[in-house]
């Protein structure tokens, strides 16, 4: 009689022979033949029912063991830099085991969230249970959805918060994650989309009530995947940091290095002073917080800062690049306390030219932390008690130095765009109280000009010392975008030079022509849209917008990782210590440049989306009101209007323009009515009615009432959204009728 192996014997054999786990392999191993196979099948089914085995097609495996080949999702590196993954096919008890990725030098880098097929080996005596080697990537991550859950009788639906998404997602009853109706949820695509019906999703996180005021920025944080929680190891490292002492640093504590920031600034990373010399020039000092002293290469703080790339700013909160112990304390140049810094002294002549400069690693003590408004007010004759002692010896020299720098700036001709910046004003409950436009003061321009000059000095020093760095690159506009700008200018009766090497001075002349006219905002917006996006690169391609040959970001290391890299490069170039640019940093510069350029764009999109949502919330109780604005965009599907009062962008869907068909001309960026001949183009002044404001998505829908002060004409056609049909002659009608008869006869 053939003996059937026990359940434990079967489990042990499968664990030791994971590649031979088919029923026939098990039968062969234990010498089971004939009718005894039926008993083996019964035992295997019992193990499966008990959850101790999992059937995979024609083979079995221990449910508490991973298969030798498995689908894994990359989690990311740990504090030691080892790359880990999590198995997506775990069906055992407890948490899924950790999997260490063992990568070959020539294999591609794997990013967090990426899914791969890996070959696993069980490991004993380590913190992790398996190691894995890459077999192949298996495509993109499952699509993530952020939306509002609407419960139904059998599961429910998710309405996306992204105003660019029109489709809903179906959630099965077992995939709701216990979400309640109306909750903001995060979900992922559940399997491939079928040919019919809505796509399926499974809820993976519940995020609370989307109507709460402070949920607005939370939506953007989750939608764009911005890390907003510091790991315990990062916080612990920041908390253990101690203030830097003088040591081998230059003592700059006698310099009147003041900080000038917005009144609600969360950090102070730059300070400045200007000391007149006997030749009507100045020694201009710019001191920047020495973040590199605290955030050293390869540390937990460094890894997290690189992952974040930059701080992200919202009206109600900031998602910082560094923990508050650094960003709000040790690296913030508060008044009256010693702070480590890297400073540059620049000699400025009476015409605003930088004749020389030198960098030092120092210790400073700021005599005052001021805001833009009080500094400007003092220069305009309204002096408060805090500014009064500094007015003559500190603030006036800063303005005098700026007056000199303006001469050199006028010759350099950086791009002079004039675009008002919106500011969302919230009350204590986080509700929008007002939408204001930020006032541009000379105090703002002064600090900006000093920072630009310090950034130039950093780039020039590192180039001269042949030290690797990250440049801030801004390339010339693409020819096609430049031609579109030229056509927009011509339509407004303005000229943009053609047939010569483009310089910022040419664009400034165009902007100057438009200044003070009804087309000023249109020309400024069109000029901005013609520009390429600035980015980071270890190679220098110049900065077109600033009209500079070499430019690097040096002045904001608290909130930009690029500046931290430049600080480390300066430390290495001057031999100031062991916390400079490492060979590993240098080898990864190209990869770092791409990563932080991406995080910068991510933050810009998140900040813009948040502003749109706050504006929609602000305008929600004004649905039905008439508003003035200008056409800011034309597309096949509709018209975008920038509203005068708030700067918000409302959309007029093409179907709402009237009964007639509108021809879209991409070259001229116009829509023309087929019946009335009315032309809707960029910059046209319009009056609209707000018909919908959706705070969750940030979408605004408006109806067009007037164009250039005249009522919107109504077309005679009834072919809404379709090209007009031409009338068919009687001869053609007869021929068509005959053709249909012949066709029926042949059938």
TrEMBL record:
Keywords: Cytoplasm, Exonuclease, Hydrolase, Nuclease, RNA-binding. PANTHER family: DIS3-LIKE EXONUCLEASE 2 (PTHR23355:SF9), RIBONUCLEASE (PTHR23355). It comes from the Bacteria. GO terms for biological process: mRNA catabolic process. GO terms for molecular function: exoribonuclease II activity; RNA binding. Belongs to the RNR ribonuclease family. RNase R subfamily. It comes from Octadecabacter ascidiaceicola. Its main location: cytoplasm. Residues 716-747 have a biased composition (Basic residues). Coiled coil: none annotated. This is Ribonuclease R. Residues 624-705 form the S1 motif domain. One of its GO terms (cellular component) is cytosol. 3'-5' exoribonuclease that releases 5'-nucleoside monophosphates and is involved in maturation of structured RNAs. SUPFAM superfamilies: Nucleic acid-binding proteins (SSF50249). Residues 712-747 are annotated as: Disordered. It catalyses: Exonucleolytic cleavage in the 3'- to 5'-direction to yield nucleoside 5'-phosphates. Its EC number is 3.1.13.1. It is found in: Cytoplasm. PROSITE patterns: RIBONUCLEASE_II (PS01175), S1 (PS50126). InterPro entries: CSD2 (IPR040476), NA-bd_OB-fold (IPR012340), RNase_II/R (IPR001900), RNase_II/R_CS (IPR022966), RNase_II/RNase_R (IPR004476), RNase_R (IPR011805), RNR_Ribonuclease (IPR050180), S1_domain (IPR003029).
């Amino acid at each position: 009689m053939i003996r059937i192996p026990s359940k434990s014997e079967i489990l042990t054999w499968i664990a030791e022979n994971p590649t031979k786990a088919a029923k026939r392999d098990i039968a062969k191993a234990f010498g089971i033949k004939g009718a005894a196979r039926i008993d083996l099948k019964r035992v295997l089914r019992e193990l499966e029912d008990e959850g101790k085995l999992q059937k995979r097609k024609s083979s079995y495996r221990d449910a508490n063991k991973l298969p030798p080949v498995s689908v894994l999702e990359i989690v990311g590196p740990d504090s030691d830099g080892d790359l880990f993954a999590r198995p997506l096919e775990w069906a055992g008890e407890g948490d899924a085991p950790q999997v260490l990725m063992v990568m070959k030098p020539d294999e591609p880098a794997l990013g967090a969230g990426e899914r791969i097929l890996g070959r696993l080996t069980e490991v004993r005596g380590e913190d992790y249970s398996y190691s894995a080697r890459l077999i192949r990537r298996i495509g993109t991550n499952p699509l993530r959805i952020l939306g509002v859950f609407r419960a139904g009788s059998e599961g429910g639906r998710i309405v996306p918060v992204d105003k660019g998404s029109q489709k809903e997602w179906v959630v099965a009853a077992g995939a709701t994650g216990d979400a309640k109706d109306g909750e903001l949820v995060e979900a992922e695509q559940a399997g491939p989309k079928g040919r019919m019906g809505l796509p399926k999703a499974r809820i993976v996180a519940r995020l609370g009530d989307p109507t709460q005021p402070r949920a607005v920025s939370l939506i953007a944080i989750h939608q764009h995947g911005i890390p907003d929680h510091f790991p315990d190891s990062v916080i612990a490292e920041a908390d253990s940091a101690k203030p830097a002492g003088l040591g081998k640093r230059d003592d700059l504590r006698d310099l009147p290095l003041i900080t000038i920031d917005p009144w609600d600034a969360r950090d102070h990373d730059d300070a400045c002073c200007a000391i007149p010399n006997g030749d009507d020039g100045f020694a201009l000092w710019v001191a920047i917080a020495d973040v590199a002293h605290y955030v050293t290469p390869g540390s937990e703080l460094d890894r997290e800062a690189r992952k974040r790339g930059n701080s992200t700013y919202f009206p109600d909160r900031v998602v910082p690049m560094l923990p508050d112990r650094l960003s709000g304390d040790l690296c913030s140049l508060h008044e009256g306390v010693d702070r480590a810094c890297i400073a540059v002294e620049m000699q400025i002549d009476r015409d605003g030219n930088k004749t020389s400069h030198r960098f030092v690693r120092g210790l400073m003590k700021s005599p005052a932390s001021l805001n833009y408004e009080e500094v400007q007010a003092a220069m305009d004759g309204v002096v408060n008690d805090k500014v009064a002692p500094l007015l003559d010896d500190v603030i006036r020299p800063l303005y005098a130095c700026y007056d000199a720098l303006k001469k050199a700036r006028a010759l350099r001709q950086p791009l002079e765009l004039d675009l008002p910046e919106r500011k969302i004003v919230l009350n204590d409950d986080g509700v929008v109280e007002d939408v204001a436009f930020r006032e541009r003061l000379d105090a703002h321009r002064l600090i900006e000009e000093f920072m630009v000059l310090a950034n130039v000095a950093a780039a020039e020093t590192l180039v001269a010392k042949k030290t690797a760095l990250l440049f801030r690159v801004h390339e010339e506009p693409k020819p096609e975008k430049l031609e579109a700008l030229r056509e927009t200018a011509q339509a407004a009766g303005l000229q943009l030079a053609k047939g010569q090497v483009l310089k910022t001075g040419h664009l400034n002349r165009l902007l100057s022509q438009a200044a003070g006219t009804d087309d000023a905002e249109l020309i400024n917006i069109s000029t901005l849209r013609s520009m390429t996006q600035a980015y980071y690169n270890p190679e220098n391609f110049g900065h077109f917008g600033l009209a500079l040959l070499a430019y690097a970001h040096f002045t904001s290391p608290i909130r930009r990782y690029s500046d931290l890299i430049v600080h480390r490069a300066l430390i290495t170039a001057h031999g100031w210590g062991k916390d400079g640019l490492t060979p590993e940093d240098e080898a990864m510069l190209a990869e770092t440049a791409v990563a932080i350029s991406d995080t910068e764009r991510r933050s810009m999109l998140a900040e813009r989306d948040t502003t749109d949502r706050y504006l929609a919330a602000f305008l929600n109780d004004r649905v039905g009101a008439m508003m003035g604005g200008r056409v800011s965009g034309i597309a096949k599907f509709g018209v975008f209007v920038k509203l005068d009062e708030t700067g918000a962008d409302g959309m007029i869907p093409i179907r709402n323009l009237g009964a007639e068909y509108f021809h879209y001309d991409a070259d001229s960026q116009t829509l023309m009515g087929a019946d009335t001949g009315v032309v809707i183009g960029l910059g046209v002044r319009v009056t609209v009615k707000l018909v919908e404001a959706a705070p969750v998505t940030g979408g605004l829908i408006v109806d067009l009432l007037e164009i250039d002060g005249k009522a919107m004409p109504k077309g005679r056609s009834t072919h809404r959204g379709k090209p007009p049909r031409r009338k068919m002659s009687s001869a053609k009608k007869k021929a068509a009728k005959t053709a249909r008869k012949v066709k029926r006869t042949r059938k």
